[in-house]
Amino acid sequence: LKTSCDELAVMGGSPAFSDTLHVGRPNIGDRSEFLERVNGILDRRWLTNNGICVQEFERRLEALLGVKHCIAMCNATVALEITIRALGMTGEVIVPSFTFVATPHSLQWQQITPVFCDIDPETHSIDPRRVESLITPRTTGIIGVHLWGKPCKIEALAEIAGRRNLRLLFDAAHAFGCSHNGRMIGSFGDAEVFSFHATKFFNTFEGGAVATNDDDLAARIRLMKNFGFAGYDNVVYIGTNGKMSEISAAMGLTSLDHLEEIITINRRNYAAYASGLANVQGIRLVPYEGADRYNYQYVVLEVDEQAAGIHRDMLLQALHAENIMARRYFYPGCHRMEPYRSYFPNAGMLLPETERLAERVLSLPTGTAVSEEDIVDICSIIRLVLKNGVEVTNALANGKNT
Ligand code: T4K
Question: Which residue of 14, 104, 296, 368 shows the fewest CB atoms closer than 10 Å?
Answer without folding.
Answer: 14
